[in-house]
Specification:
By secondary structure, the chain is an alpha+beta fold. The protein folds into two domains: about 200 residues, Alpha-ketoacid/pyruvate dehydrogenase kinase, N-terminal domain (Butyryl-CoA Dehydrogenase, subunit A, domain 3); about 250 residues, Histidine kinase-like ATPase, C-terminal domain (Heat Shock Protein 90), CATH 3.30.565. Helices cover about 45% and strands about 10% of the residues. The strands form two sheets. It has a five-stranded mixed sheet with strand order 3-5-6-8-7, covered by helices on one side. A three-stranded antiparallel sheet has the order 1-2-4.
Length: about 475
Amino acid sequence: MAQVHRPLIIQSQFIRLSCPRNVRKTPPFLRPRRHCIHTANVTDHDIARLATLPLHPLTLADLVKHGKPPLTTSQLLSSANFTLSILPARLAHRIQSLRNLPFIVVSNPHISQIHSNYIHSLSTLLPWAEREITTLEEEIKFTEVMADLVQTHANTISILARGFLEARKYISPNDVTQFLDEHLRARIGTRLIAEQHLALHFSSQPHREMMHEDGEELSGYVGVIDTRLRPARIVQHCENVVGEICELKYGVRPHVVINGEPDYAFAHVPVHLEYIITELLKNAFRATVEDGKEREPIEVTIAPLPEELNNNNSNNSSSKAENHLPGHVIKSPDQGITDMASRRFTGKLSSPSPTADEQIRPLAHSTPGVTIRIRDRGGGISPENYAHIWDYSFTTFNEEQASSTLSGASSKSGSGMDALNAISGPGGEGGHSLAGLGYGLPLGRAYAEYFGGGIAVQSMWGWGTDVYLSLRGVGRVEGDIRI
């Protein structure tokens, strides 16, 4: 079986999208020690003050700018202070967005738990706020705070999903969708910032040799970012995982053919790509088998973005170059670039367009990227379902479907909590936690779009489906970090 090897820090903080026998326990040095962490009382004034601060427009370049591990003392302190400078405001924005929900919704035990988790995390950061980390001893204590934060919010998505499902009588599906779109995209950045510092910290310590697996050289990693990421290896790994589960359920499994440029490599976050590819292959495998076309291969084409797009820094010229791609299909300019909570709580809701501080800035056009097409012969998507493929499907559950999902039974005939759904779960979500709740495609698109990529679907009803995934990297990282 092809395996995708990654640093231990990545495996411990993101979900392992693999068979249960491959799941690893969190190593002792990453387990938060809450009894060692000082907290401060969080007042409404603290939240209101921090929520007025603009959100830092995170890019992947921010995550590699401190250097390549092992970091020097000054680089490690720089990473810690950068992390500290932007996380308190992000947590405050999330608290405010939760408080903006109807009171009866926030009173739901699950949603109230998420609110309490954010209050706890902010209380651990307040003792560090408005100060500078100047010693390695302080950096070590701050890293414990980051480990606590990551662990505290490990199951945020699944808890929120069940909370909104229970409170569905008191909030409209559209309001839920809008809240989740904003909240989940903001969560991507918050977790990345915290996990990147954790990864840089542990890869710069004497025990960093523990992060090697099977003797593989991991010098291509900068924290959670693989600067030599080969999408073909991710596809092969996900094919094996999804294929085994598919064969367990249906007794057969389609095979995947990879073409294009399978040796192409670029810099990106591997666990994000792994989650997206897993979700897309799940859909392709299911459609192919259920349409009786299991002998037809699922075709995955890997194509680097054209050089004129990668090397041209002119916005006008780049836009013209994008027009030669299926850019009108891949690009979703209204997704993942604005944190509406920031605009709402800073009094800028009436702004005609988001300011630079309010944007989650896509990467420059000069960064290398890739387009991955997944093509199946699974009969396509019916016209009545095509318009709803990006919905969180649980928002349209009837009473019977909602009750069966909450009780752990199959939520939808033929598409509920089955073996294929059981391997869902990004960013710390475990096992069956998201199964049957319709999070796969919407959340996969959020991961793709957060840094300027996207997912688009073209379906031929009665024939099959093409899915286009576009991703941008962090730029070329050779020797010293150069963006």
